Amino acid sequence: MSATCEPSEFHEACGTKDDEAKGSGRLPDNVEINPLFARPKEAKAFPKFTMPREGSLPETAYQVVHDEAMLDGNARLNLATFVGTWMDDHANRLYMEAADKNMIDKDEYPKTAEVESRCWHMLADLWHAPDPMNTIGTSTIGSSEACMLGGLALKRRWKEAREKVGLPTDKPNLVMSSAVQVCWEKFCNYFDVEPRYVPISEDHKVLDGHDLDKYVDENTIGVVAIMGVTYTGMYEPVEKISEALDRIEERTGLDVRIHVDGASGAMIAPFIQPDLAWDFRVKRVYSISTSGHKYGLVYPGLGWVIWRETADLPESLIFKVSYLGGEMPTFALNFSRPGAQVLLQYYMFLRLGFEGYRRMQQTSHDVAKYLSGEIAKMDDFTLWNDGSDIPVFAWMLKDRANRKWNLYDLQDRLRMKGWLVPAYPMPMNLTQVTVQRIVVRNGFSHDMAEAFIGDLKACVKYLDGLRSPMPSEAHVSGFHH
Predict the structure, then answer these.
(1) How far apart (Å, rounded) are the C-alpha atoms in residues 187 and 147?
(2) How many CB atoms lie within 10 A of CB 330?
(3) Where do the segments described as Disordered lie (predicted)?
(4) What is the pLDDT of residues 40-63, one digit of tens each?
(5) Cis check: omega of the bond before 233, within 30 degrees of 0
(6) Are residues 342 and 380 part of one domain?
């Protein structure tokens, strides 16, 4: 059905308000349709903020949405995001075939449910669970939900242990680095847990167990260790954190567990740093979460969380629900959610295997090391880290008298060439330090890296040639962790 316009009734959809807005400085309220795609008697514009009274031809609606989305950036040039932006044609076909599958409906989609179970058992094995078939896990919408489920399990375990001996449970706290991703701040806010941030510094660039005893007490539900800090890509040494907690337990009797936030590193370390003990080989590691849609190489959104043993997930957190003819256990913040990404994850596990993942991650790692090496050679920059952990690194601007630009200006110049390379301040106690960061993902080739270095040098040369400083109002980061 085409969207026709009656002069008195639908003047908003036909553009009258836009005509008024053109000279007023207001943003127009309508989306105008290119006459090439409009049909006779069809609306010349759609209202932006109200549903159109009538529908339109599918070709017209498609073109409007297509043209809106076309204005987004080129994902391949986005060096800010960790999220996967490319899959092969077979994956794309599978995605379309599975777009209607509801992950929660295990009665109607039992094979998708079985595939989900296979995936997290594979991850449990990859992460050295003592008995991979006696673990428990689940897929999630992303690693943020996976982190929250891990945090909830820590809180419930702590609460139930305190209740058994008649101790108060009203002041739980969670210990973590000041450089955690915002999902942990949300967890503490949403679930009434006091966040205790261990500040990073130039001497302790990550949470490494230093001064941990100043933050851990009887109300600590757990410690978060990050395998790939969002700010810089560095690993937090899980073994050293565990050893610090061992010393605390020897002195106080407190048995504090670790949740590993492996959003990125949990899908990197097993393949290219196999001897690094960060996973269930470390006995205090209680649960691990990761993003399937980051270095799991799947489209967003998909996450995974797994507990060391089935008994480690408190039974009180698991719901058994009757849904569409069957009873099923569920532990999630979401209910209905896409099943397609779970099938895509299984496809990638089958498609690449261990050796394929190793090659993919090693390639990204090699590109990151090449980029950091080239940037380290430039007179203007000092590396914060070099991408030796996950293929992510950050750099700072060297002090130089009379320099008329900063990293925010460089961020803007690179954006003019299509590259998204964020500049931002470091977390508390280091907010005076500004860094710029690159994330290397699958699909960012050596050729693209060479092109980027060429553009970076051209941007620096332009900025060095300035006769006066860039406007200070431009010194803003549009990036959020």
Answers:
(1) 8
(2) 14
(3) 1-29
(4) 656 678 888 999 888 888 888 898
(5) no
(6) no
Burial pattern 266-300, b for ≥16 Cβ within 10 A else e, equals: bbbbbbbbeebebbbebebbbbbbbbbbbbbbbbb
pLDDT of residue 105: 78
User: DSSP readout, 8-63?
Assistant: TT-HHHHTHHHHHHHTTTPPPSEEEPPTTT--TT--SEEESSS--SS---HHHHHH
pLDDT along the chain (481 residues), means of 10: 39 46 62 68 78 87 88 86 93 95 83 93 98 95 96 98 98 97 97 97 96 97 98 98 98 98 98 98 98 96 96 91 65 89 98 98 98 98 98 96 94 95 94 97 94 98 90 59 48
Which CATH number goes with the domain that contains 438? 3.90.1150.160
Q: Tens digit of pLDDT for each residue in 265-293? A: 999 999 999 999 999 999 999 999 999 99
Say what the pLDDT of residue 224 is.
Answer: 98
Those residues whose C-beta lies under 8 Å from the C-beta of residue 252, and which sit 6 or more positions away, are 218
Structure tokens at 231: 């700010």
Would you say 151 and 259 are in contact if contact means Cβ atoms under 8 Å apart? yes
Q: Give the three-class secondary structure for 377.
A: helix
- Domain-located, residue 76: no
The C-alpha atoms of residue 246 and residue 365 are separated, in whole angstroms, by: 33
d(CA 241, CA 204): 13
pLDDT of residue 6: 41
CA dihedral for 105, 106, 109, 112, sign (positive or negative): positive
Phi, psi of 34 (to 5 degrees): -60, 130
Domain annotation covers residue 5:
no
31 shares its domain with 98 = no
Range of the domain at 22: 11-70
The CA distance from 105 to 336, in Å, is 8
To which residue do tokens 């043993």 refer?
Answer: 309
Place of tokens 């290219």: 272
